[in-house]
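Hi there, hope your week has been kind to you so far. It would help a lot if you went through both lines with me. No rush at all, and the record is pasted right below:

***
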Amino acid sequence: MSCFAQTLAVLMLLFGAAFPGVAQAADQPQWGERYSRNQITTETGLPDSFDPDSGRNVKWVAELGTSTYSTPVVGGGCVLIGTNNGDPRDPRRKGDRGVLMCFDERDGRLLWQLVVPKRSEDAFLDWPNTGITGAATVEGDRVYLVNNRNEVMCLDLHGLANGNDGPFTDEARHAEPAGAPPVALGPLDADILWLFNTPVELGVHNHDSACNSPLICGDFLYVATGNGVDRTHRKILAPDAPSLLVLNKHTGRLVAVDGERMGPRTIHSSWSSPSAGEVNGRTLVFFGGGDGVVYAFAAVKSEGVEAAAKPFTLKKVWWFDCDPTAPKENVHAWQDNFKDGPSNISGMTVFHQNRVYVTAGGDVWHGKPHAWLKCIDATRAGDVTHSGEIWSFPLNGHCLSTPAIKDGLVYVTDLSGEINCVDDRTGRLVWKHKAGGEIWSSTLVAGDKLFVGTQQGELLTLVAGREKKLTATSEVPGAINATPVAANGTLFVASMGRLYAIKP
């Protein structure tokens, strides 16, 4: 390391906590560990419980909207989370909108917010009062997200406080519904650097909510499009639209799309987000399709990409059907069949030690109550539906969860309120804990602790290990839909209306 690099490293350690925007070693800048999506952390010493009423172990509390499904991310001294506009911070922008809030990690002070009007064409494109539901991704001083209008955006981590950096400069008009006059911008507004309008550019017809989390891999951004059914739930309006796209993270230019035409086989929508991992010396990108199939694509290489005249099709390396005996044609005829029917994937794929872990099963709202946790060999090629399955673990009903893997154990929840601990090698149940209500969020493993939020507004703390032990239960007003996140010695837990920073 050069003298300059050593000096810079020391300065970052000394002053990183004092200046938002300086990267810190224990940030959590995207959903899950690196790009594997494994929701684990080396953070230790986090409190087992907290009390919002007395303030015990509560560092700060930030008011959100009234409906929050987004998992917070932490990067560069900032905490970012999507919500709705149920409790407007900006009195000039009232009414139903999507909001991304950026808070100071030290004290919870609002630094800036992105406010996005709702789509007016059809409520099923942007469900009322839902807000921005996907988790953002932070890299350096840039923030990447998919907003409630299904636009992929790149924002300045510092907002407009340091000026409008461009090339996008029409933030005032973007923040207002069509036909409404723009409102003057201020330092508490977001600075949009570039924007890619997925519905306009690719004809995507998403459903209910664009709840996708961008994945950064090299110079590229991998984003699920959320392509899904129409308001009748019985028709795909955009059968040829891609389910996965790749953008240049610096410019927002479209680089590649999948060529799998998953739309006609998608029972509800494509809500899973991609992950990635190194397999046999090359990087693969894994994606859980709305058709219940896990796809592995070769990651895009920078060489020659910018010179290409048009976007190319991602190269498929292998694919795995999580429910091979389910219907594959006319899948929408099985709408509201709660006994049989197709499967889809809502949680993310997780890569760990040459394996991919994923939950799949019947649609949560309109399908059969059967779901599984699958473990797939990521080193194979071609159709690995039968040859690539290492084990399959049955879950109790519907599932929205992304599994977490650590020390030979896999932790996964389901909507019945069960927390399952499964042996990583054999797929056998180690222990099971029944919570007091439905679980929509996923698990966080932090050191020797396991944190899980429930729809009953409870944060459960268990021992991460082979012996089942519930150590604490903390209660908050409102459901906990987001997955807990730990960064820089602090646990961040979002309820429907508040974000809690928890620290001893």
